[in-house]
Amino acid sequence: MTITVPTETRAVARARIGPVVLGTDLGPASTTAETDAIAAAHDGAVPLVVVHAIDPGRLRLPGDRFPQRFDQVRTTREGLVARLVERARAVGVDARVLIWDGDPATCIVDAARAENASRIVIGTHGRGLLVRVISGSVSAAVVATADCPVDIVPTRTVGDPPTDTTACD
Q1: CATH class held by domain 26-154
Q2: Whole-prediction pTM value?
Q3: How far apart are CA 90 and CA 93, in angstroms?
Q4: Which of 90, 96, 119, 129 has its CA 20 to 30 A from that of 63?
């Protein structure tokens, strides 16, 4: 899937030699995006900044009765993201992590701006139109507000050919 960013933004984005920012929910929908972001950082010889947002308003235990404790969720997610950083470093990519609390799209875009990112890579759940309308789409919100190219990477299964996800070439 190719996402087009306004022309004036593309010129600024091409001048950047900043890191690749990976926005991840650390779930199955982000697995392919994580792999692609590591490859993009490696191929571009730039750092990888892994951004994960914890939305406190969505922290619920199974059954939706009681909220989860933020500190417990953060500790669990730090362990998951540490494994992702190890994967990147194993192939020679300088990787670091930002775990922020708040709306995921806002956190990803704000982190990309703060890091002067050359691009953002995010996965997509591939949900239907109705679900996106009701619950919103992180990828759509990132594309609408980002100042740099955004690669939206659909989940691939074993045997699927790679998808061209390059934005704004």
Answers
A1: alpha beta
A2: 0.78
A3: 7
A4: 129
48-54/95-101 β-pairing: parallel
Encoded amino acid at 43, one letter = D
The span from the CA of 2 to the CA of 101, in Å, is 29
What burial letters (b/e) apply to 37-46, b meaning 16+ CB within 10 Å?
A: bbbbbbebeb
Question: Residues 26, 82: contact at Cβ < 8 Å?
Answer: no
The model's pLDDT over 47-100, given as tens digits with 9 standing for 90+, comes to 999 999 988 777 766 666 667 777 888 888 899 999 999 999 999 999 999 999
- The domain segmentation of the chain, as residue ranges, is 26-154
Beta bridge partners of 96: 49
Q: Which amino acid is at 148?
A: C
